[in-house]
Amino acid sequence: MSGGLVASPQPPAEGYDLALVDLDGVAYRGPEPIEHAAASLTTARARGMRLVFVTNNASREPGTVAEHLSGLDIPTTPEEVMTAAQACAQLLLTRLAPGSRVLVVGGAGLLTAVREAGFTVVSSADDDPVAVAQGFALEVGWTQLAEAAYAVQRGAWHVASNRDLSIPTARGTAPGNGSLVAAVVAATGVEPASAGKPEPTMYHLAVQRAGARRVLVVGDRLDTDLAGARGGGYDGLHVLTGVSSARDAVLAPPHLRPHLLGADLRALLVRHPVPVPGAEGWWTCRAAAARVVDGRLELRGPTRVSADDDLEPAVDVARAACAAVWAAVDEGRAVDPVSVPDLVVTS
Predict the structure, then answer these.
(1) Same fold, 12-83+198-269 and 85-194
(2) How far, rounded to the nearest angstrom, does the alpha carbon of residue 133 sit from its chain's CA centroid?
(3) Does the structure show a pLDDT above 70 at 11?
(4) Which of 81, 134, 147, 190 can pair with 105 through a Cys bridge, CB separation 3.0 to 4.6 Å?
(5) Is residue 22 among the annotated active site residues?
(6) 10 Å Cβ neighbour count for 260?
(7) Distance spanning both ends of the chain, measured CA to CA
């Protein structure tokens, strides 16, 4: 099977020496912590797993992110944070000489990263920038987007910290940097380079910094976190506390598929079984099973549980469903998406 789930006979906290952990939707949701996140990460560290928090958010500096996490009972140093702003600055260095003028559209994190990379920061297209670095910040508005558009129209290289169309907040889903980048693209017709996930640039930088050998990417978005894991050659754990659901994972194309699946960050602390094929087309994962018959998914096991229940049986159903649907698709068989139910309710 192409891009299938993998077994973790040891809890990931013991089998991997470094976890690259996403923030929004994994460790916290907006200003609020996600249940079990702090305790799970503390235990994972105690078992020998190092952590680097990797975020597509380019608006905050690593120190600010570290303070936020520490305030949520996840003690973190700035060296344990890798932001899309830092990756954006590194991407600029691949083509531009230090001292080059860069128009920055974004927050303090991106401004600091670009300056620390040795570039001269400007705020107007009339300053003749050779590049535009664009990242998310709450204060970004029409004036900044217009300056970016003018500069790109005059030939400046457009580099986005990331192209996430949306971000999760405590109140719901809001426009992300990708939506703001799209406004500049609409005005110029020029597609930008992107430094953030799903590009694996940040992952490679974090791994090099840590000197790690066995690396696990932990995220909640298939189109960024897990796509970046696949693209970078790392195993990826998809947790169901953020944007992408278990149903999304079942229906994911090969380049977005996770290697491991868990309800939340407690998944770092348990073994992960791999579904195995059996008679009559069933894929079994402990007591759960799934198969595809005449283009429709059939399941055995719980598909809907409450946060107070043991979530593992329902996660096993999702694992079995992934194996059955992915195998069918990889064999060229069509699967009706309507036959795939919502799976694993954690709240």
Answers:
(1) yes
(2) 21
(3) yes
(4) 134
(5) yes
(6) 22
(7) 32
Domain residue ranges in the chain? 12-83+198-269, 85-194, 276-339
CA distance 20 to 6: 18
Q: Is the pLDDT of residue 303 over 80?
A: no
pLDDT exceeds 60 at position 347:
no
Query: Model confidence over 191-222: pLDDT tens digits?
Result: 999 999 999 989 998 999 899 999 999 999 99
Domain 85-194 class, CATH top level: alpha beta
Quote the tokens at residue 201: 């640039």
User: Of the listed 17, 22, 73, 128, which one is catalytic?
Assistant: 22
CATH C-level class of 12-83+198-269: alpha beta
Instruction: Tally Cβ neighbours within 10 Å of residue 73.
Output: 12
Annotate the chain with three-state secondary structure.
CCCCCCCECCCHHHHCCEEEECCECCCEECCEECCCHHHHHHHHHHCCCEEEEEECCCCCCHHHHHHHHHHCCCCCCHHHEEEHHHHHHHHHHCCCCCCCEEEEECCHHHHHHHHHCCCEEECCHHHCCCEEEECCCCCCCHHHHHHHHHHHHCCCEEEECCCCCEEEECCEEEECHHHHHHHHHHHHCCCCEECCCCCCHHHHHHHHHHCCCCEEEEECCHHHHHHHHHHHCCEEEEECCCCCCHHHHHCCCHHHCCCEEECCHHHHHCCECCCEECHHHCEEECCEEEEEECCEEEEECCCCCCCCCCCHHHHHHHHHHHHHHHHHHHCCCCCCHHHCCCCCCCC
Question: At 182, is the pLDDT very low, low, confident or very high (cuts 50, 70, 90)?
Answer: very high
pLDDT at 1 over 50: no
Record the pTM: 0.87
Handedness of CA 126, 130, 136, 142 (dihedral sign): positive
Output the pLDDT for position 229: 97
Q: Which of 17, 24, 73, 294 is catalytic?
A: 24
